[in-house]
Each structure stands twice: as C-alpha cells, then as structure tokens.
Amino acid sequence: MIKKVSTAIVGGGIIGMTIALELALRDIDSMIIDEPTSSKTTAAAAGMIAPISEAVFNEGTLIKPNLHAQQLWSVLADRLTELTGNESSLSNIPSLLIAKTKDDKAIIDNLVNYYEQCNLKIEKLSNLQCGDVLAGLTPNFNSGALLLSDYFVEPLKELHLIETAYRKLGGEITNSTATSLDINLSQITLSNNDIIEAKDIVLATGNSGAEILGQKYASKLQVIKVKGQIMTLKLNETAIKLERVLRGFVKGTPVYLVPRSGDELVVGATQEYTGFEIGNTVEGLFNLIEPAISLFPSLRDAEIKSIGHGFRPGTVDNIAYIGRIASTNIICAFGHYRHGVLQAPLTAEIVADEIQGESNQFVEIFSPNRADLTQSV
Ligand SMILES: Cc1cc2nc3c(=O)[nH]c(=O)nc-3n(C[C@H](O)[C@H](O)[C@H](O)COP(=O)(O)OP(=O)(O)OC[C@H]3O[C@@H](n4cnc5c(N)ncnc54)[C@H](O)[C@@H]3O)c2cc1C
User: Fold this and answer.
1) pLDDT of 376
2) Residue 119 and residue 216: Cα distance in Å, rounded?
3) How far apart are the first and last CA of the chain?
4) Ligand 1 within 6 A of 247 CB?
5) Are residues 243 and 327 in the same domain?
6) How far apart are alpha carbons 361 and 51 in whole angstroms?
7) Which CATH number is 189's domain given?
8) Which segments of the chain have a pLDDT < 70?
9) How many beta carbons lie within 10 A of that of residue 267, not counting itself?
10) Is the pTM of this model over 0.90?
11) Per-residue pLDDT tens for 50-61?
12) Are 171 and 8 in contact (CB under 8 A)?
C-alpha cells in the first residue's frame, strides 16, 4: 500500500513531535513514523531550558539561537495549554549556580565573566542571597549566581502534551520502523511493508541520524553518542523541596538537580564518550550522588526512584543538523546533543519555514550542507 502525505517525519521524540505540531499549526499535513519499541533520548533528558548554563566557550554560535529557543518555549507552553486544556510543565523560575570550594569559585568566576561578555542575563548573589533564593541549600559553599534565562520543563510531560495537541489537530502517528528510504521516489518503506510517499521527508531520528540514507550520508552527518547517567530521587515528606534548578561545581565535578512534580527531582548527568555502552556504573552514580548531597543535604534521606542513562546525539561541531540537504527532499533534524529539549521549538520553526519556503535567520548555522555532502549525492 502506498500512502501519500505532504510531510513524513521519521522519529517521534521531542524533536519530531514538536515539528509535527508546528506543521499542523501551519495547516501542513504530516505523519510521524516512530519505532514501536523505541528508547528515546528524550526520556532520559533532565529538561533544562538553559541557554545560559549550556553556553560554553567554544559554542558561542549557539547563544543567539538558544536564547530564541527559550523564548519559543513560552509560546509553545501557552499553545499546549490552549490546545490540550492541561498546563505545560514549563517553569520560568531562574536557575541557581553554586561553587562549592575556592577552586570551584574560580571555575564559576570564569563562566560568569563569559556570560557577562555575551550579555547573558545573570545576577551575582551574596551567600546570604543564595540561601534566600533556595531553601535547603548547603550553608557551606563559596559563591553563587542566578541564571535569569535558565528555566526547566518535564520532558516526558511535554512530549505527551505535544502529541495530544498534534493528534487533536488531526495528526497521525504510525508506530513502525522506517527501514529504507528512496530519495529519488521520495518514498519510505516501513517494517510492515507499507510505503509512505511524501513531498518532504524529515529525519528527526536522534541517535540514528542519517543512517537510513546509507553510509555515504551517515559518515558525513555523523552522530556521536555521548552517554549521560541520571537518577530520579524522591524527597521524604518532611524534607525541604527543591524549587528551582540547582547547578553547581563540587571539587571540579559539575552536577545539576532539576525539580520534578510529586516531590521528585532529577540529578544529572555524566558526560561519557564511551560509545554505545549501555547501563549505569557505580562510578557514574557516585559522581552524581556525592556532589548533589553536598549542595542539597536533605537528599541524604531521599528515596532512589530510578536510575537511568541516555545517549546525547552529538555532532563533530556540537551543532545540530537542521535543514534541507541541498537539492533533495530530505530535511535533517537531528544531532541536538545537550540541547534537544531547549531547541525543539526552534528546530520546528526552522523546519516549518523551510517547508513553506520562508527565510529563517538561523538556517546557515544549522545547515547540514556545512558538512561537504557534494560527494554523497
Ligand atoms: C542524561 C541526559 C540529559 C539531558 N538533559 C537535557 C536537558 O536538560 N536539556 C536539553 O535541552 N537537552 C537535554 N538532553 C539532550 C536531549 O535529551 C536530546 O538532545 C533530545 O532528547 C533529542 O531528541 P530527539 O527527538 O532528536 O531524539 P529521541 O528522543 O531519541 O527521538 C528519536 C526517535 O526517532 C526514532 N527513530 C530513529 N530511527 C527511526 C526509524 N528508522 N524509524 C522510526 N523511528 C526511528 C527513535 O526510535 C526515537 O523514538 C539530555 C540528554 C541526556 C542523555
């Protein structure tokens, strides 16, 4: 059976789903094809919408698009509430950055200087002020700052809301694997042998990247899997609750604590270039627990609800591939590395603009054609 659709989106993680919703809002007919038993990186994400704390020295190009992405999240959250009748989990309480030791203070002083040079909105706080903005913070630390544009969401809640909104607008999701793709015919073959023919095909395939296009493309548009271990804890009833994202450095180790509903919080995350090595390790979890407790001591009695890990879909320059492969019907939307949740509405905007033939200020930065694809065609 050949089914025709205007846009086929391979992948139903936060990226594919947000693109689909944006297309539906622009009255563009689409279909999502998502593996039935998929383990989505989106499920492992902490959910920080963090254009400031994710700004690192060699990724200056991403600051402007990430700030724009953060603003788009507020628009998306309002739309989700309107379309589904349920509140988005987006919280716009700014995150707190803390240095535990004197050496950690040197690290965050450097970061804060950089943020200021980049005109990112931060506020240096005295230790007393840090304690005032975050009940439960350890009294033993060196310095702190508020990151005024860094917010958070619960990724799986948002994914569910986005899916609900997309379905309400008539969107279709097929739980099947896309096994092959014919660029010339613009057709995707599914594992159940159905064929989807589309004017545009979007690859929102996360860690699978351009694999479906074959080795020539996959090797140029390479996705580098960066493992992150993470754990979900539940604070006991009498413990002080975490009300904002707490990021910090403890003896040089970075750690973050992100609130979840129901007195839970997520502690993350390691960054390991170990390839596709599945599972949690004692060292990985130790490197989360020890610094987390030293910043937020009431975690000592918290219940471990789950441990988990995921693979950030990185690229050689840490910038996602978003946009059309020149002279084809293929639009890339993968390789979001540490920023997939933050950049989901931005990706949706770029992809939808591309499909509608409209210009977008960020096309060049994310274009897949920055990898020399000419020999792949
Ligand atoms: C520990 C950890 C913490 C993180 N924290 C944050 C954070 O705080 N903030 C942030 O912005 N980002 C964060 N990230 C990064 C973020 O999670 C990812 O960038 C994002 O989830 C990528 O989303 P995606 O939709 O591209 O991929 P995925 O969620 O993996 O979705 C891709 C989907 O495509 C499907 N698929 C692939 N190939 C096929 C095929 N051939 N046929 C059908 N379906 C296919 C997969 O099965 C999957 O369902 C974190 C990542 C990790 C690991």
Assistant:
1) 52
2) 41
3) 28
4) no
5) no
6) 18
7) 3.50.50.60
8) 38, 375-377
9) 27
10) yes
11) 999 999 888 889
12) no
The response to whether residue 227 sits with its C-beta less than 6 Å from ligand 1 reads no
- Residue 51 resides in a domain: no
Question: Is 87 part of a structural domain of the chain?
Answer: no
Instruction: Tell me what pLDDT residue 273 has.
Output: 87
The domain spanning residue 278 has which CATH number?
3.30.9.10
The answer to whether residues 229 and 370 belong to one domain is no
Ligand 1 pocket, mutate which of 336, 346, 350 (most atoms under 8 A from CB): 336
Which domain range does residue 113 map to?
95-148+224-314
Furthest C-alpha separation in the chain: 67
- pLDDT for residue 276: 73
Identify which of 16, 340, 44, 309 has the alpha carbon closest to the alpha carbon of residue 166: 16
Is the CB of 366 inside a 6 Å radius of any atom of ligand 1?
Answer: no
217 & 228 share domain:
no
Q: How far apart are CA 10 and CA 1, in angstroms?
A: 18
Same domain, yes or no, for 136 and 237?
Answer: yes
Residues 160 and 309 in one domain: no
Cβ–ligand 1 contact at 335 (below 6 Å): no
3-class DSSP assignment, residue 323: strand
pLDDT score at 74: 97
- 272 domain residue, yes or no: yes
